[in-house]
Design goal:
single chain; alpha/beta; TIM Barrel; 8-stranded parallel barrel; two-stranded antiparallel ribbon; 13 helices; 10 strands; globular; binds flavin mononucleotide
Amino acid sequence: MDNIGRKRGHIGSALDQEQNQSCFDSIRLKHRSLPNVSLEQIVLDTQFFDKTTTAPFFVSSMTGGPSESERINRHLAEACNELRIAMGVGSQRISIQDGETFGLNWSVRHAIGNLPLFANFGAVNLPHLKAVEELGRILDPIEADALILHLNPMQEVFQSNGDTDWRNIIGHISEVCEWSPVPVVVKEVGFGLDLDSSKELVAAGVKILDVAGTGGTRFADIEIELNTNIGEILSTNDVFNNWGYTTAECLINISRALPSTTCWASGGVRNGLDVAKSMCLGASAVGIAGRLLRPATESTDAVLTVMKQFKSELRITCFGLGVQAVGDLNTTHILDGTRVD
Ligand SMILES: Cc1cc2nc3c(=O)[nH]c(=O)nc-3n(C[C@H](O)[C@H](O)[C@H](O)COP(=O)(O)O)c2cc1C
């Protein structure tokens, strides 16, 4: 299957996935009967580098490649523009490989206006670049505010012809950090960033870690479904079902061990309450992918409806906790004895 066909398959399979159970369900926050704040006055504004958005959540990198992704990205970018929300685009490998941007160009920048927009590239593809400067070809057309590199070893391994040589990828990431004119963010794709890798990434110069833990979109399932020869490497499709770390586990481990590192959360975020819980666990911003995919296939209005619900749920959470600004959420708002798994 070619790259475009595989990307198209990702959208179809991700749309079929149900997102019902989540690590966030076992986390309880402290209710206040006397909140001492006004619901309307609660501040959700958040700083992304030198720009301010109206909420701490952003659209996590999704599609790039097939023609339907142009529509999806336009709906997402237009909704972001209207509500003043940040967005990451999907993998732009194809722009470098085939010289064709497939809609991940000035049109996304135009649709989102001056809001924070993040480029995306797979870290395992860095060794295939002729020179690190080639990444300019994905940053410049969208005037990217940051470069997100994704780590997806447990996605590649289930792909037919996936990239399974991960030796010295950290060396290449370090080279990107030295060169990049914009901050470098490293994210997982739904298996969760572990602490040892996080330490290596910070030492390599990565500015922000996006944990992208389990509990939401399951990329192993997607690739297994698309791989017609999967029987050659797996006895049953569910062998690796429980692989990885939940978003909550990653946030707890990384924010304890690397307290001065900026952490973003994503993976299994279903609503504004999950956004608030992620922030209580140490995230400064929160990415949403799967939950926005179906509305994004429909219309800009459908995306706007979901984003407004997220904002309202987040505001209600702050109100119920008696918190004046979303940036003030922290571990003290988590009920003692809460179970995080
Ligand atoms: C259809 C689809 C395509 C995705 N493509 C990319 C991608 O190109 N690059 C990337 O870094 N992450 C990609 N992701 C992963 C998401 O950014 C996110 O990390 C992951 O889905 C977990 O978030 P969720 O549980 O809210 O879906 C994709 C997710 C979906 C659903």
